[in-house]
């Protein structure tokens, strides 16, 4: 049993740090966990969205007569008859909106992207609504659109307003241009990724329950119930008392549930207008009519001395955004931050295209930028004739090279060493095309991953009742990450309870304030908040225990007792204890309640940067003749501070790694630029890996003590698994084949193609 | 999805009557394709005739001429795992197992598989033009997203492919489709069952609207161990073929006596070139001979940008498939690693 060093009083860890099953696992596998589209209400009406066909222009006519004539149709909402909502576009800005004017569904006749919702049919059942939706006739006046980033690179601009919460590209260091010119060894290349859509298993959906008197309860697929709540209150002019959002379970989201999606607006609009409960569920096709991981044109130029020390780093990105918002994510920063180099420049520009605004998708920016940077580092290693791991160690930095700040911790060196050892990297023949088995070429590649370790202001409540049960609560979400479970573990250890006596409540706007679950900050933030609230309960409970008549721990202070086994016992003599029940009886209370807020330490933030890191090692086997690439072995060594639950943590990394394999080999939203529309909008043609594509994945958590990243030592895990994976695979493909593929995904055509050979 | 009535006829004759009296009717059996298409508003039948309970179409029987007769309602799973099919027509079993997923194969029928419609993105998206879905509206695939499209037998009106794996094997095996209509029964050889798009891309097959598929008849088996079904796709399962090759060889030692080669994923129908197959007669099996055959099969192949790689990929796939067949080492559909 370890003692946690971060708080003044010791915490005896029975559950924290140990593998534990998901507390919500049984609910999920038995179907008892309710998702947004599974909540119901008496007299529920069903909405079906009519999606637009053109990318840009105007609706000249919407004929809803045939739809309205279908028995069972309640109403067809269009821009012509929608109820009034807030007129200021600012009212539509949610917690994580980028700068700009958010898309307003059914606002007017203008079409700004293909697939835009143009009508909502509400009917007595889903089938009627769907049928009637097919009868809505929309006539358009199309205007010339542009959806191809590559065609408008000349119009790139630096976004005038930075997106809140996103670290902008670092200030230039030294003179990267001159240093590049003077470098004896150089690489410079362009890299592209494909647009990807999140496609969580659960489609976006909202069920609005009409409570009467203008009050509604909303079940939304959202990564933060309070973000939906404030969106609704601002857009529809309601108060927090009128709107409660309850979203206890989210069937995956990967960022698509950070911002309220258009079905929330449509469902609430219809419910308020019809004064009845309404559910709107999107189809899989419509999952391609919202935010996406943006494509971009990236250029990376690296200069080095023959001793493999970097002399110059330059990373430039031009990425697409919508015509109405300036979406920004941290893409190029990593290239400067990671490696010791006196001359470094990173720039990020945008071009406007006629699509929906891109959206944060798992580790937004990092796998994109590090695919380019870590591919370039690999290219440089061959030019220098140095092992790729050695190149990274040669340029290893102990500070944040983007701003010179110290790091709260960085065990990346250990991650390289432990990962390489587990993988057997030392046995690698460095020569491309040198490793073969039968018909297959074997390639070993590696790359570095990084993600910001963040903490966000988050509140939590703890309530201990006389029956010895504890409830911990915060308005955060669990999108499949394991939040319920780790909050339960933290609460259980704080008060010395078995996990069965602790209940975590989240996903409800009426609970203590929390930001959206995202950015890998939830474990650190909500975890700390729960710990703080439980600490306040501990102190109160301890007071009662000590003040009890003839208390066996009367002379002890808090640091001298352990909360374990539902008792408060002297550490020096565990036979002297008070049970929780007795302590509460002594205090004359049947509940102890505390609410606390976890706040990031401003002083720490001023002095330190904090990141999670990973070293990814990959084996691919390539049938070169037929262009087949299989990722047969992968080791991901992750340094991410304290691991609260090694079991759910491993699942997070496995999921991230599979996401990365998918990015490297499979995922691609294919735009038809003539139509301005993504065409493969279903899961038959938008490919993610199947079981047959996934082989051995070995996840290692590298020991990392960090007392500054967050008070509970946690750095977060949701994103780091995907970062670096695609680059490592591309590097392995080069090692196998001698072919450098700089455009994802690495599909058969690119492997057998003759272009892009290094 | 539109509203529709549904009928459950008790006999083939009754089923035929149902569609002759309802011109906008569609037959449904497993429903694995039609239901999808109805949800996407690509098919909008006002009357659906459910064949799934018709008696007598769900069996696998000897033809009496050494072949097998596979009833139209036999599921893809039942056919693939039938001992007689596995033993005598392993190429067909293999192709069936290369397709879709176990869940889909359990529901999909042999007759329905013949009538699978293309996976062209534009065909599936009712908001875009498509000559196959709505004749005369145009074909955006030609200069649009056409990674999965045809390189052989295309027309200016349509470059869609037929997506079935099963049909590719049936073409190589020279199966015959038995159908019934108002005028009685007739037989359609596989080579004539599917059409090229020409100027009528809306028509996938030469089956008449009022005809029902009764069975697929396989001729006497003859290819022994020298066969393979090689399917190349963007992931190892649950993906349609970019290119697939069904190859069957009759060997005499190192020499080829007879060859059958059919390609999937490259045309509006399973693609066979009998003259190319003839080229192998009496030749020693080997890369050189196979390459010449591949050249001949792909003569006139045309790419449209996104799918141009298929020409080279098909060439290599033909060589690999013939090599696998000649060696008697057919592609495994369980360990999906390509041999």
UniProtKB/TrEMBL annotation, chain B:
<keyword id="KW-0560">Oxidoreductase</keyword>
<feature type="domain" description="FAD-binding PCMH-type">
    <location>
        <begin position="1"/>
        <end position="223"/>
    </location>
</feature>
<dbReference type="InterPro" id="IPR036318">
    <property type="entry name" value="FAD-bd_PCMH-like_sf"/>
</dbReference>
<dbReference type="InterPro" id="IPR016167">
    <property type="entry name" value="FAD-bd_PCMH_sub1"/>
</dbReference>
<dbReference type="InterPro" id="IPR016166">
    <property type="entry name" value="FAD-bd_PCMH"/>
</dbReference>
<dbReference type="GO" id="GO:0071949">
    <property type="term" value="F:FAD binding"/>
</dbReference>
<keyword id="KW-0285">Flavoprotein</keyword>
<dbReference type="InterPro" id="IPR016169">
    <property type="entry name" value="FAD-bd_PCMH_sub2"/>
</dbReference>
<dbReference type="Pfam" id="PF03450">
    <property type="entry name" value="CO_deh_flav_C"/>
</dbReference>
<dbReference type="InterPro" id="IPR002346">
    <property type="entry name" value="Mopterin_DH_FAD-bd"/>
</dbReference>
<protein>
    <submittedName>
        <fullName>Xanthine dehydrogenase YagS FAD-binding subunit</fullName>
        <ecNumber>1.17.1.4</ecNumber>
    </submittedName>
</protein>
<dbReference type="InterPro" id="IPR036683">
    <property type="entry name" value="CO_DH_flav_C_dom_sf"/>
</dbReference>
<dbReference type="InterPro" id="IPR051312">
    <property type="entry name" value="Diverse_Substr_Oxidored"/>
</dbReference>
<dbReference type="Pfam" id="PF00941">
    <property type="entry name" value="FAD_binding_5"/>
</dbReference>
<keyword id="KW-0274">FAD</keyword>
<dbReference type="GO" id="GO:0004854">
    <property type="term" value="F:xanthine dehydrogenase activity"/>
</dbReference>
<dbReference type="InterPro" id="IPR005107">
    <property type="entry name" value="CO_DH_flav_C"/>
</dbReference>
């Amino acid at each position: 049993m370890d003692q946690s060093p971060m708080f003044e009083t010791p915490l005896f860890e029975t559950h924290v740090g140990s593998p534990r099953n998901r507390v919500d696992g049984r609910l999920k596998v038995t179907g008892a966990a309710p998702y947004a589209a599974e909540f119901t209400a008496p007299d529920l009406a069903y909405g079906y969205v009519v999606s637009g066909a053109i990318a840009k222009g105007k609706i000249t006519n919407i004929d809803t007569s045939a739809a309205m004539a279908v028995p069972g149709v309640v109403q067809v909402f269009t821009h012509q008859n929608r109820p009034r909502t807030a007129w200021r576009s600012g009212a539509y800005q949610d917690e994580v909106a980028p700068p700009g004017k958010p898309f307003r569904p059914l606002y007017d006749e203008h079409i700004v992207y293909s697939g835009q919702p143009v009508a909502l049919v509400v009917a007595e059942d889903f089938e009627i609504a769907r049928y009637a939706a097919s009868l809505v006739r929309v006539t358009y006046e199309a205007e010339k659109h542009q959806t191809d980033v590559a065609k408008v690179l000349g119009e790139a601009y630096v976004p005038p307003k930075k997106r809140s919460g996103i670290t902008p590209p670092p200030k230039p260091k030294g003179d990267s241009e001159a240093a590049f010119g003077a470098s004896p060894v150089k690489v410079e290349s362009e890299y592209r990724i494909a647009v990807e859509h999140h496609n969580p298993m659960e489609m976006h959906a909202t069920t609005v329950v009409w409570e009467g008197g203008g009050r509604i309860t909303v079940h939304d697929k959202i990564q933060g119930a309070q973000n939906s709540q404030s969106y609704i209150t601002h857009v529809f002019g309601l108060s927090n008392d009128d709107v409660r959002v309850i979203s206890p379970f989210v069937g995956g989201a990967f960022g698509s549930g950070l911002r309220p999606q258009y079905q929330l607006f449509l469902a609430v609009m219809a419910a308020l207008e019809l004064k009845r409960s309404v559910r709107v569920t999107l189809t899989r096709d419509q999952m391609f009519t919202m935010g996406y991981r943006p494509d971009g044109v990236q250029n990376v130029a690296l200069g080095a001395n023959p001793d493999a020390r970097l002399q110059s780093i330059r990373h430039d990105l031009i990425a697409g955004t919508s015509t109405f918002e300036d979406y920004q994510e941290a893409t190029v920063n990593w290239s400067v931050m990671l490696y010791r180099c006196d001359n470094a420049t990173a720039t990020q520009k945008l071009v406007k295209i006629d699509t929906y605004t891109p959206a944060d998708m798992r580790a937004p920016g990092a796998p994109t930028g590090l695919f380019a940077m870590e591919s370039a580092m690999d290219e440089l290693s061959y030019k220098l004739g140095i092992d790729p791991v050695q190149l990274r160690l040669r340029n290893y930095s102990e500070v944040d090279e983007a701003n010179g700040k110290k790091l709260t911790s960085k065990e990346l060196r250990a991650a390289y060493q432990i990962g390489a050892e587990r993988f057997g990297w030392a046995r690698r023949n460095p020569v491309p095309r040198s490793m073969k088995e039968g018909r297959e070429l074997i390639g070993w590649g590696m790359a570095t991953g990084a993600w910001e370790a963040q903490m966000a202001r988050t509140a939590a409540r703890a309530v201990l009742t006389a029956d010895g049960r504890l409830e911990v609560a915060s308005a955060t979400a669990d999108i499949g990450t394991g939040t319920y479970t780790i909050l339960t573990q933290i609460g259980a250890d704080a008060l010395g309870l078995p996990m069965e006596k602790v209940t975590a409540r989240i996903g409800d706007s009426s609970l203590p304030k929390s930001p959206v679950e995202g950015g890998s900050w939830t474990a650190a933030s909500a975890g700390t908040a729960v710990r703080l609230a439980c600490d306040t309960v501990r102190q109160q409970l301890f007071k009662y225990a000590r003040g009890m008549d003839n208390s066996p721990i009367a002379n002890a202070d808090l640091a001298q007792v352990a909360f374990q086994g539902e008792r408060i016992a002297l550490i020096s003599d565990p036979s002297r204890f008070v049970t929780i029940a007795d302590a509460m009886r002594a205090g004359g209370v049947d509940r102890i309640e505390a609410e606390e807020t976890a706040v990031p330490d401003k002083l720490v933030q001023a002095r330190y940067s904090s990141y999670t890191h990973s070293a990814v090692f990959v084996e691919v086997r390539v049938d070169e003749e037929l262009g087949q690439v299989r990722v047969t072995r992968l080791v991901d060594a992750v340094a991410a501070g304290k691991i609260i639950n090694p079991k759910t943590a491993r699942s997070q990394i496995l999921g991230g790694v599979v996401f990365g394999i998918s990015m490297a080999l499979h995922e691609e939203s294919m735009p038809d630029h003539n139509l301005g529309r993504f065409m493969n909008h279903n899961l038959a043609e938008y490919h993610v890996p199947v079981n047959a594509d996934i082989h051995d994945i070995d996840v290692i958590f590298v020991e990392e003590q960090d007392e500054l990243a967050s008070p509970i030592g946690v750095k977060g895990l949701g994103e780091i698994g995907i970062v670096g994976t695609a680059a490592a695979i591309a590097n392995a493909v080069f090692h196998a084949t001698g072919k450098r593929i700089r455009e994802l995904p690495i599909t058969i055509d690119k492997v057998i193609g003759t272009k892009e050979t290094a | 999805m539109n509203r529709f009535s549904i009928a459950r006829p008790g006999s083939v004759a009754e089923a035929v009557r149902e569609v002759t009296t309802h011109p906008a009717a569609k037959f449904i059996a497993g429903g694995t394709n039609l239901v999808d298409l109805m949800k996407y508003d690509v098919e909008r039948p006002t009357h659906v005739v459910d064949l799934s309970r018709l008696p007598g179409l769900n069996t696998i029987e000897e033809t009496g001429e050494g072949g097998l007769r596979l009833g139209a309602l036999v599921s893809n799973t039942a056919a693939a795992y039938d001992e007689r099919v596995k033993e005598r027509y392993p190429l067909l079993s293999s192709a069936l197992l290369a397709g879709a997923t176990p869940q889909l194969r359990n529901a999909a029928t042999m007759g329905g598989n013949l009538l699978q419609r293309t996976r062209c993105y534009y065909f599936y998206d009712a908001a875009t033009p498509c000559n196959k879905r709505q004749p005369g509206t145009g074909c955006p695939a030609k200069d649009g997203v056409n990674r999965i499209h045809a390189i052989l037998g295309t027309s200016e009106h349509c470059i869609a492919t037929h997506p079935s794996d099963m049909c590719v094997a049936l073409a190589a095996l020279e199966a015959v489709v038995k159908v019934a209509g108002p005028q009685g029964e007739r037989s359609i050889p596989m080579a004539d069952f599917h059409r090229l798009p020409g100027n009528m891309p809306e028509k996938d097959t030469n089956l008449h609207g009022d005809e029902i598929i009764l069975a697929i008849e396989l001729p006497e088996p003859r290819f022994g161990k020298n066969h393979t079904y090689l399917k190349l796709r963007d992931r190892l399962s649950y993906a349609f073929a970019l290119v697939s090759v069904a190859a069957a060889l009759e060997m005499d030692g190192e020499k080829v006596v007879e060859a059958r080669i059919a390609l999937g994923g490259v045309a509006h129908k399973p693609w066979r070139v009998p003259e190319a197959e003839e080229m192998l007669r009496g030749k020693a099996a080997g890369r050189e001979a196979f390459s010449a055959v591949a050249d001949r099969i792909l003569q006139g192949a045309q790419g449209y940008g996104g799918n141009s790689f298929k020409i080279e990929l098909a060439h290599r796939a033909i060589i690999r498939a013939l090599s696998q067949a000649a060696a008697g080492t057919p592609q495994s559909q369980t360990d999906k690693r390509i041999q």
